Amino acid sequence: MKLGVIAGTVVDTQMGCDLIESYDYTSVFLPMSNTCNEQSESQYYSKTKLEELFIKKCKTAKEQGCEKIFLYCNSLSCSVDYNKISSELNIEIITPLESYKHLPTYCKNIVIMGANGLSAFMIDKIIREHNKGVNTICYGNVSIVESIEAKKTPIDIIKELNINGFIHYIENINSSKFKVDSILLGCTHFPYIKEEIEKITNLKIIDPTKDMLDRCKNN
């Protein structure tokens, strides 16, 4: 199957291509912008232009024989009306957002790690609408994305941005009502540091990647 991979920057688009190619899919590389700053500016300030560009990328994917769109970006998924565009262009668009509608039953108090406030807010909204009784703490940090794009090692990113300090904080919330059990990776860049996060915490890590891949298989 050929999939059009659309994401916010060159780096996460390539991550998406590498991912699906490792599962024997064929990818078409369709980044929306070159840098994190370009991506953020378009998502916050140019919604109309952003959707126009996204539609253009989807049409390019169809022209190149793609059967589905693999929208490998949380913040971009939060910024465009992909359901409407999917219907208008008659092509399935797979995003991380559907993965958050049915969280594991152990999730009661989760931390949402997003690339920015927009994606953290929208993921929070989806979780609250579809998962009764789940409490959330939202955290948006584009510096993690920028460090990944700069090709720093996961160990250096954890150390320089004091992510272990943040995890220590959430692990030590004493309120029984808000005792954190899970960290949701609400940015497709973040699996890059997933293994290092797992080394410093026993909290569950929620990563939508597998669910997205499973949805690629379904007709």
From TrEMBL:
Name used for this protein in its record: Glutamate racemase
An MF annotation (GO) of this entry: racemase and epimerase activity, acting on amino acids and derivatives
Gene3D superfamilies listed in its UniProt record: 3.40.50.1860
SUPFAM superfamilies named among the record's database cross-references: Aspartate/glutamate racemase
Annotated InterPro entries: Asp/Glu_race, Asp/Glu_racemase_AS_2
Species this protein is from: Peptoanaerobacter stomatis
Record PROSITE patterns: ASP_GLU_RACEMASE_2
Highest taxon, organism lineage: Bacteria
Coiled coil start-end: none
